[in-house]
Amino acid sequence: MANRLLALIIKELLAILRDRRSRMVLIVPPLMQMVIFSFAATLEVKNVSLGILDDDRGQASKELAQRFHGSQTFRHITYLDGVEQIAPLIDSQQAILVVHIEGDFSSKVESGRPAKVQFILDGRRSNAAQIVQGYATRIVNQYGADLAPPSSGGRPPSVELVGRNWFNPNLSYIWFTVPSLVGVLTTLIGLIVTGLSVARERELGTFDQLLVSPLRPFEILLGKTIPAFLLACAEGILILIVAVFVFRVPFNGSVALLIASLAIYLLSVVGVGLFISSLAKTQQQAVLGAFVFMVPAMLLSGFATPVENMPHWLQLVAEANPLKHFMIVVKGIFLKDMPAAVVAANTWPILVIAGITLGGASWFFRSRLE
């Protein structure tokens, strides 16, 4: 059995690596997606277009406007002459925020009275508008804090709030995105390679030869699963190396724990891929089936939006998503040096899902062979 299984595994690996299209699928898309996701899939807001309506035109208002000029967030600033220009500027999406400084701003600042600044934001881009509002509020608050000591007789504030960000001190979005790609891209490779294995045999007309060979259905099943598992593991390790040495994401945890968790996770992925390959008659159907699973898995993984923000019933559905659990593990090991006990607590659900997917896929695969 071992010799027959080894021969099938070698044959499957050679069939994948010798085929030009298969090599392209294994190498080019993951590298392209890693670069694109790392720099494009971000919630950071940069190079923001801003409008300023300064009805005061005094020294204090000009200084506040210069604070926005000095910020790295705001790159394109348009000065308005009247309130009637605010709506057209936002309607045409030439600015996501308009800062309206009232006419008595400088006089109130000089006399120590509260001076108001109004923000008008484009609510059509709600997430970006909230983030930009936070940036602008911080600039105005800092300006007010700089004015406070002279107006209060030089007394320092009684309470000072100091923020500290653990595990990602500079709030670099690369540190959040790149570790997540270890799970996302290995999922894609595991699904596609497993899904294409049987479909490729059917298209080439060699699947019937496997059925009349001395190989038993269980051996064919393993021969189709193990190569995809090994290739996906190699892809995950490659992404890990690129994340650490190219993107400079700090790796604080145990490599052995991460690879063990990755192996368990990929067992659940190849189970889904084997189920897809049992249904697909062509390679095109297999790729389509892989993406039918991949898109909901990504949306329910917490990669783009936190699972906690979803409705309760959808959070229950997300518990059946192995990628959701692996995301917690990979980011925890990368950034937090997650202890082995916590890793195990988040990995055992993946092991249960792997047992279900592999068991169901093997039963369906054998029934289709018979």
Describe the protein.
The chain is an alpha/beta fold and 370 residues long. The chain has two domains: 2-41 and 169-369, no CATH class; 48-151, abc type-2 transporter like fold (3-Layer(aba) Sandwich). The chain is 67% helix and 6% strand. The chain has 14 helices and four strands. The protein has helices at 2-18, 20-40, 59-70, 86-91, 105-111, 126-151, 173-204, 207-211, 217-245, 255-279, 283-299, 312-318, 322-336, 340-369; strands at residues 48-54, 74-80, 97-101, 117-121. It has a four-stranded mixed β-sheet with strand order 2-1-3-4. Strand 1 (48-54), helix 3 (59-70) and strand 2 (74-80) form a beta-alpha-beta unit. Helix 1 packs across helix 9 and helix 10 (255-279) packs across helix 11. It is elongated and about 95 Å long. The protein starts with a helix and ends with a helix. The mean pLDDT is 84.
Briefly characterize the structure.
The protein is an alpha/beta fold and 370 residues long. The chain has 14 helices and four strands. Helix 1 crosses helix 9 (217-245) and helix 7 packs antiparallel against helix 11 (283-299).
